[in-house]
Amino acid sequence: MDPASLKIEFEKQIKDADQKIYAAENTLKQLQEYKTKLLGGLETLDLLNPKDNQNPAVPPTPPTE
């Protein structure tokens, strides 16, 4: 191949690589947002159902005298 053909081929490959990088970055961003939503869901579940029953939903009975 002559230098002009190589230059055109390299430019095509660079353009293709840039498109793949752009698509991969978008996919990464979507996955990070999805992970954030899942973590929020876990946090919500932990708030609704605490693992340690130190603060039960039923209030303690007042002391009797």
Write the topology of this structure.
Blueprint lengths: L2 H46 L17
What would the principal axes of the Cα set say about the shape? rod-shaped
Q: Name the structural class.
A: mainly alpha
How would a textbook summarize the main sheet? none
Chain-averaged pLDDT: 89
Q: Give Rg in angstroms.
A: 29 Å
**Tally of helical segments:** 1
Q: Can you count the beta strands?
A: 0
Our estimate of the beta-strand percent is under 5%
Poorly predicted runs are none
Rounded to the nearest angstrom, the distance between the terminal CA atoms is: 100 Å
Question: What is the total number of structural domains?
Answer: 1
Please tell me about this protein's structure.
This protein has 65 residues and is mostly helical. It has one domain (1-65). The protein contains 1 helix and no strands. The termini are far apart. The mean pLDDT is 89.
Keyword list:
mainly alpha, 65 residues, 0% strand, 71% helix
